[in-house]
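Q: Focus on the chain.
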Amino acid sequence: MTCAGCLLSAAGAVSALWLWGSSGRTWRHLGHGFEGEGTDYGAVLLEFPLVLTGGALLPALVWGAAVRLLGRRGNRRASDPDR
């Protein structure tokens, strides 16, 4: 279970970075003006760590919640005396 959560986090971080990097908004901020005019490095310095962290944490949190909920459901069935 732990390995799958780590792999899911890595996949989430990579896909979040890919989506962020390929968006039109990011391309505008990273200098599609003449000779680099309009380049906003604040977008990279602020958004890049947030996208990376969010992309890694969100799948891990969803995975952890699913494991916890499914684990509770399995424990209830095992402790049910009618079964």
About this structure: The chain has a mean pLDDT of 78. The first helix runs from residue 2 to 22.
